[in-house]
Design a protein that fits this description.
The chain is of the alpha/beta class. It has two domains: about 120 residues, Response regulator (Rossmann fold); about 100 residues, Orthogonal Bundle (Arc Repressor Mutant, subunit A), CATH 1.10.10.10. It has eight helices and eleven strands. The protein has a five-stranded parallel β-sheet with strand order 2-1-3-4-5, with helices on both faces. A four-stranded antiparallel β-sheet has the order 6-7-8-9, covered by helices on one side. The protein has a two-stranded antiparallel sheet with strand order 10-11.
Length: about 220
């Protein structure tokens, strides 16, 4: 799962990112509101940690724009203010949770985990299922329930397969896959996706499953 941190204090942003990476989250950081708004409106994030007091565009404006665009990403607000009025304003716009600075980073991580566990469109089980495939989230192991054969899935292939298995039977555009798996601002070679899909298809065949990830011409890819 991918998290966006929008925080202008670089040390705080880096500390949060370091802690969340240990929880196996993919992290992107924006250090001002303008960049944060641009990234938030991409819709690729599962959760946004959003400081209210930001240069260029403040956090409440970013939150309002996100909700106006019908983006249901979970949003956890951070602020140096702790008044009830500020909290209520944030919740009224569409925040899911709120933490006042200074905070204990362990509590922040706990709140992030709760928000993502409760998110309806996120698979929170240890095992993701599709047809006769089981993907173990904790061990990155893919198993065919028909043949009982298993295979270990490397990190980037795991992120790709998890994305497909969390969006079953949907056509996913190439750009969505790059943004979700490689990151919104990351650079990549145009043939990266095809190479990783080829690796995944071979592994699926090795364990004896008939599931395939097929290209849908001019639209993207779909697992079927």
């Amino acid at each position: 799962m991918r998290i966006l941190i929008v925080e202008d204090e670089e040390k705080i942003a880096d500390a949060i990112a370091t802690k969340l990476k240990k929880e196996r989250y993919e992290i992107d950081i924006c250090l001002d509101g303008e960049e944060g708004l641009y990234s938030a409106l991409s819709g690729i994030y599962d959760l946004i940690i959003l400081d209210i007091m930001l240069p260029k565009v403040n956090g409440l404006e970013i939150l309002a724009k996100v909700r106006e665009n019908n983006i249901n990403t979970k949003v956890l607000l951070l602020t140096a203010k702790s008044s009830l009025e500020d909290k209520l304003k944030g919740f009224d716009i569409g925040a899911d949770d709120y933490m006042a600075k200074p905070f204990h980073i362990e509590e922040l991580v706990a709140r992030v985990n709760v928000q993502l566990r409760n998110k309806k469109d996120i698979k929170t089980k240890d095992i993701l299922n599709y047809k006769d495939l089981d993907l173990n989230i904790k061990t990155s192991t893919l198993t065919c329930t028909t043949t009982k054969e298993s295979i270990s899935i490397p990190y980037r292939e795991f992120l790709l397969l998890e994305y497909f298995m969390s969006n079953q039977n949907q056509i996913i555009a190439k750009e969505q896959i790059y943004d979700k798996v490689w990151g919104f601002e990351s650079s990549y070679e145009s043939n990266n996706l095809e190479a990783y899909l080829s690796f995944l298809r071979k592994k699926i065949r090795i364990i004896g499953s008939n599931v395939n990830i097929k290209a849908v011409r001019n639209l993207g890819y779909r697992m079927e």
